[in-house]
Fold:
Amino acid sequence: MEEKSKKKFLERETTRREFLKLTGKGFGGAVISMSILSMLGCESEQTVAYALPSGLLVADASRCTGCQRCEISCTSIHDEKIQPFISRIKVSENYNFGTDGPRIDYYRQNGQFGNLSMSPETCKQCRDPYCGRACPAGAIYADPKQGNARVVDTSKCVGCGACEEACPWHLPTIDPETKKSTKCVACGFCAENCPTGALRMIPWEDVKKAMRRSGYRFS
Amino acid sequence: MAVSYGWAGKILRVNLSNGRITTEDTSKYKDYIGGMGIGYKVLFDEVPVGTHPHDAKNKIVFGTGPLTGSGAPCSSRTNVTSLFPTNPMHLVADSHMGGNFAASMKYAGYDAIIVEGKARGPVWLRIEDEKVSIEDASKMWGQGIYNTTALVASEMGKEASIAAIGQAGENLVNLSVIMNGYSHSAGGHGSILGAKKLKAIGIIGTGSLKIAGNSKDLLDTNSYMLKELIGANNNHVVPSTPQPWAEFDSKGSRWTAQKGLYWGAAEPPVETGEIPPGDIKTVGLRTQKGVKDLGPVAEKYTKRMGGCQSCPIRCFSQLEIPQLEKYGVSRFVSNTCMGYSAPNGVMIKGTVDQFEKDDGTFISKTLGSQLADDYGVWCNYGMLGREFKYIYESGKLKEVLSEEEYNSIPFDLLEAGDPAFLKDFYRRITFKEGEFSHLGDGTYWIAERWNLGDDFWHGKAQKIWSPLGYPVHHSNESGAQVGALISCMFNRDSQSHTHQNLIQSGLPADILREVSAELWGSEEAFDFPAKYTPMNQYKAKFAKWSIVRNVLHDSLTVCNWMWPMMVSPVKSRNYRGDTALESKYMSIVTGENYTEEALDLAAERVFTLHRALTVKQMGTVDMRNKHDVMMDWVYDMDTDMEPFTEGTIKMDREDMQTALTMFYEEMGWDKKTGAPTKETLNRLGLDFAARELESMNLLP
Structure:
């Protein structure tokens, strides 16, 4: 666990730094460059191997109060247990110190110990998903029964964690109890149960608009 | 190990003297539910009478219960049990904190953490699921809670949930806290960790809480609670202003959401609005706590509300106030209730406007809360300010301090209403600078040290409730004898909010009296505010039920500042709540059939064990005269009025003795002394306590 945690943290830092370099912008800004969108697969010219999803979960960081009921809702309905670590929406891991973890000037960075900003992170249901491309078992597919959300076929998943590594936000998570990957299926159950209406399901086509919308965090 | 539902199944025990880290099965504590119940049982069994709180032989128990982290709303409360330093006899007491810590304990696989012994040098405890280690904290020692938390997180990872003490706890200041999540603090036990040289506990829990029943039932119950039962903070169920959807409103209600009231510093601002019950997505907007705690000036600085894991009611206000940087603290503040008002109470000459109109107390509250939180200073539920006021205004301070020390304190700032005084005030207490710093010892200890007499103890202005050195906390002002009885039963200020939630719910008194009749047998259980009647048995039942539910909640653990669901905001329910909801959750989560009565009985067992432990520690059965005692002002206030006349909350001496007798009878305690009888101890399965008390000649 310790090693894994450390590794995850370092890798995430690297990914983020590269990511920020790409965009030349910070997170949470209203300006979204085309390179971010292309990283999402929004403007990708390459062959689409996945059918387009219909829905997308977005989080309004301004309305999020960090209650983490979304993580509870998510794992109750999908896993029949309560386990925030594998929640497909991530709030608690960013609660104290934002997505980047504690820095020397933590008191003005995101998080409860900083500027009190929340950093809810949601799956982008990428057009050409990094997680799916990375999966050696071909276990991540667009499920027409779930609006073509990118979902994990647990019968194929080998629990290797390649999806988690590949995702720029490390959103898929291997359940340490089942050794299977968990990722967002865009069911919207967390949004229905968010006590401040900070989560919404929007049509996937609106992703660029959603990211530009003031108050919606690019998460 | 077999799968455990609700309970994590294991208790972690860490001995800091010899470095031994072990786990044990939770099941032997099942009759005590969890949390507070585990805490009292461990203290009863394992800590010798006469132990000093700061001695290595004292133990501290961080307890959670079967509903902690279960997703039941308001279920991330940590119950902390240990000997209580401010108590004159160091009797056992609990402190509590919300935040994420309790839920994280469960996901890491622990129902409780027992810390015993004393480390040779500063350490912190690192918990990553089953991997637990004692780490060197020498770099953290001397740091405030904020830096300490950042340091632990930089070692463990950002996702760690961290509880820490500040310099006040390190320096063994009795009035000190243990805190997690920036502002969730357990007051009065910080110095226990300081004495053990344990600076912090960090937890990463990647595991799960398993539900025995159908998770759909759990989700349906969540939905039922959020749509039909829950109100705003303290379960106030009517809005504070007239609104089209609401039949009733009440100015004092914490359901402050209304048209035109915003989280003003959110981007874009979030309107709280007129939000009828029934919609889960607006429950968290009901309480705008910034305006409630800090006044109208707070609205434009309010970024959001905050609060605890799993709780849809956001009772912490979170603000950005750039002006605070002038005082050398962060511009970002998060707190609630007494966390704000206690530092303002230190500004005994008031605070003048600082940067804009009517911002005086606003600045004192927000600046003071940051100072106290980072140092980890506790207020003894507001006593600290009132004690300071007494010794300053009575001239006692001048008497007990050297001239040099007295002159070194910037009383000019205090007199001028300048909140910068708070920086000096909290620093002296935290670092034990001079005689003045003994204010941090607590009520009883300063009275002893400075020879404070009857007018200190019995004066109404100090609001001291008990000779045990704790203040009013929803006492005679809250339900007459009901609140008064509740306030006599613990070894610190009462943490029971059950009765207060009902009384302040905002519904008309007539409805509350009907609800009281349904719960306790007669409308006579409920007095109209300041229109009190003499004691009756229904009030005794109300008081007992309030305590039993408080103890139940701290054992399950769910928040007694919200639970139980006695009333509802929904008119079609005739505003009736559902007091069986705890048992419904317990049955679904654990898979065992729990009735409301079975849970109440278990909580009665826990509360009676607390009483037995108090008798054991005090070495007397005479609880009536040695423990359940109120200060004179409660009986002697409003000198021109008689008790039970409209407009006064004064109590009557003889009537209170009747109240105690009736309460003891409800509890099955000896009606003369108030000590638990052998029969009652045995009935509750506390035979071991009966045997031990008998051997000490402490059965009535």
About this structure: The first helix of chain A runs from residue 2 to 23. Chain A has one domain: 2-88+122-212. Helices of chain A lie at 2-23, 34-39, 69-79, 130-134, 162-166, 189-192, 207-212.
